[in-house]
Amino acid sequence: MAHVHVCRHGQDMDNVHGILNGHRDEPLSELGRSQAAAVAKKIQESGVSYTAIYSSPLQRAFATATAIGAAVGVPVQVRDDLIERDFGILSGKPYADITKYAGDNVLQGDKILYFLSSEGCETFDRCYERAQGVLADVDAKHPAEHVLLVCHGDIGKMLQAARAKVNWEDGLRLPYFANTEVIEL
Question: Where is the active site (predicted)?
């Protein structure tokens, strides 16, 4: 197995405005850029040596990964399967609209209200399966090596759940995954 660390991207402009982003490709905010620089410095100073850094294709994650990669001298590789969960009709809507579109089909996490379904969204079952596939591939390519995955909140939670071998629902109940937080799986 690989030694996998997961990092969530820095704050983006949708985060600033309280907008659900999903596949929206918004840039990092000024704070997000400083968060990316700070986490890059923290990782560099930690002495962890990554063999590979993989990133979601969305610019908020890629910019965060690029800052880290530059600090530690590791090129960033894009993995499409690290993209955030597709929020369907809720993409671009304010957080406050979750119950308007998802009704009671929600789960309250410690800080986030997760919608479990809405028109056109990727289910957590599917997101969890995608996370399992990412981990299986990384484990096969990088046995006993340190790997960093830079991604998003929902797919990050599913990566944590898959590695811990708990179901997706229990994964959503794990502690909040903050911007530029790095978690060892």
Answer: 9, 84
Provide the pLDDT confidence category of residue 44 given band limits of 50, 70 and 90: very high
Q: Tell whether 15 is in a known binding site.
A: yes
Task: Please state whether 47 falls in left (phi above 0), alpha (psi between -120 and 50) or beta.
Answer: left
Quote the pLDDT of residue 107: 94
E strands in 72-135: 76-78, 106-108, 113-115
3-state secondary structure of 59: helix
Residue 163 marked as a ligand binder: no
3 burial via Cβ count (<10 Å: 0-12, 13-18, 19+)? middle
139 is in an annotated binding site: no
Calpha distance 111→88 (Å, rounded): 22
76-78 and 106-108 beta bridge pairing: unpaired
CB atoms within 10 A of CB 184: 10
**Closest residue by Cα to residue 37 from 6, 57, 9, 79:** 9
Is 13 annotated in some ligand binding site?
A: yes
Domains, the chain:
3-184 (3.40.50.1240)
Active site residues: 9, 84
